[in-house]
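Quick one:
INPUT:
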């Protein structure tokens, strides 16, 4: 029997470049476990974002395309339409998906493209130095909001999962936090469900993962985990917002 702690076959032995305490490593593992579970590694194509996960093609053992900033859903659409037998997923951060790529993700979801989107929400632009993102919380200090995000000047943080769940084209939309073993297991189940939706041709699936960015938050890894629970989850509620057909993989 395979040990639950062993490395998924979908992840290679490269040393990841992520900072200590970063949520990307956990999120990568959940995706890799799903590819292993469904036996789809050989026919999966990932689409990498611009952002801290830009090098994800170095870590997965499947093919990965690099998209221009925010355009991963458009690339995924083209891949899926030309190779409908393949499993296509995008992996995007909040700057990539919710800012410059907002149009692409909304229309991809609204068209009901049969692809899977993994959305990492850490409330900042990570790679470029911690600027304010569409998901930055009110009052949160960033390099471009040094006095805190201001409602009058900057508007509200955007809740992507809730917004996309209102579109007729979406089949599965969920959000979970990577802040505790229990929630990581729930996130794992959501990621599995999202890929299951695509494998069964049910349609567009989207999982938002609240993740730590200790470097740009200016916090230790453990304090970052506490911040997810004490601040992020208060504004970004956890749960399944839409599930057209119940998963049958368990
Ligand atoms: S800057 Fe933040 S999101 Fe980027 S690798 Fe470091 S901790 Fe992770």
């Amino acid at each position: 029997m395979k040990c639950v702690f062993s490395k998924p076959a979908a992840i290679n032995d490269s040393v990841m470049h992520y900072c200590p305490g970063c949520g990307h490593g956990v999120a990568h593992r959940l995706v890799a476990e799903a590819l292993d579970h469904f036996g789809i590694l050989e026919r999966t194509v990932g689409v990498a974002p611009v952002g801290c996960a830009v090098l994800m093609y170095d870590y997965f053992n499947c093919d990965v395309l690099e998209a221009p900033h925010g355009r991963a859903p458009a690339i995924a659409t083209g891949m899926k339409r030309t190779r409908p037998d393949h499993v296509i997923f995008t992996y995007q951060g909040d700057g990539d998906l919710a800012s410059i790529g907002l149009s692409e993700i909304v229309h991809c979801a609204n068209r009901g493209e049969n692809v899977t989107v993994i959305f990492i929400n850490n409330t900042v632009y990570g790679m470029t130095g911690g600027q304010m993102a569409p998901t930055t919380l009110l009052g949160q200090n960033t390099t471009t909001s040094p006095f805190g995000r201001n409602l009058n000047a900057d508007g509200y943080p955007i809740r992507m999962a809730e917004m996309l769940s209102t579109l007729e084209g979406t089949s599965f939309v969920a959000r979970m936090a990577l802040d505790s073993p229990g929630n990581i297991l729930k996130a794992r189940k959501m990621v599995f469900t999202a890929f299951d939706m695509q494998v069964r041709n049910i349609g567009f699936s989207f999982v938002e993962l609240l993740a730590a960015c200790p470097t740009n938050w200016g916090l230790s890894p453990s304090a970052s985990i506490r911040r997810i629970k004490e601040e992020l989850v208060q504004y970004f509620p956890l749960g399944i917002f839409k599930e057209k057909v119940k998963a049958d993989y368990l």
